[in-house]
Amino acid sequence: MIEALHDLLVKNGFVVALLTTGIIMLASSWISSTLTNKKIPAAAIAIFAGLLLAYAGGVFTEGKKGIADISIFSGFALLGGSMLRDFTIVSTAMGARFSEIKKAGLPGIVSLFIGLSLSFFSGSVLAALMGYTDAKSMATIGAGACTFIVGPVTGAAVDASSDVIAISIAAGVAKSILVTIGTPTIAKVIGLSNPKAAIIFGGLAGTTSGVAAGLAATDPKLVPYGAITATFYTGLGCLLCPSVFYITLQWIVKIAAV
Description:
Layout: H1 2-11, H2 13-34, H3 42-61, H4 76-79, H5 82-91, H6 98-129, H7 135-146, H8 150-158, H9 162-190, H10 195-205, H11 208-218, H12 223-257
C-alpha cells in the first residue's frame, strides 16, 4: 500500500509540487494573518519556508537540487526551473495599463540605472570588506546584490569561482526577502500608492520576486507596474554587470592598487 502510494506520488511529481506549494502558501497566509497580524507578508514567510525545505532536502539526500532530490518531490525540478520562472515573470505584466506605464517615462528609465548602479557597487564594496578584492569576485557579488539571477550570469561571464557565485546567489536571495518584508512597512513613507511610484520603485529595488511580493502585501493593483521595471532591471543587469560595470570595476581596482 505504502509502496503503491510512493510510486503514485513519484509518477505525478509535478502535481505533488503544486500541491505542496499550495499548502505552504496556505500555511504562510495563516501564519501571517494570525501570528503576525499581517506585519510580515505571507509571501515572505512562504519564501523563507521554501528556502528551509530546499536546504533540508539537499542535506538529507546529499544532493544538489534541494528538495527535488527527494523522489516524491522531484516535480520541483520542473516547477522551480527556468521555463516556469520566466513564464511567471512575464505573466506579472498582465493587467498593467500602457497609459500608466507611459506616465512614468524618463523617471522609470532613470530609476533602472540608479537602482542597478547602487546595488552593484554597494555589493562590490561589501565583497571587498569580506576579503574578495579581485575584480571578478567583486563584480559577481555586486551583481548578486542586484538580483540572484544577475549574479550567476555575471559570475559565469567573468569566470568567477563557484564559491563566489554561491555567495552572489545568497546576496540576491537576502535582498529579495528584505524587499518583500520591507516594502509594506515603508510604502506610506515613500508614497508608494500609485502606478507611477510602483514603476519607479521596481526600477530602484530590482528584484522581481521581492517587488511583486512586497507590492502584493501593499496593494495588489500595483504589482504589474512594479514587476515590469523589475523585470527590465534583471535583463539590463545581465547586460551591464558583466560588461560596463565589470570594466569600470577593473579600472577602480587598478587605481586602488597603485
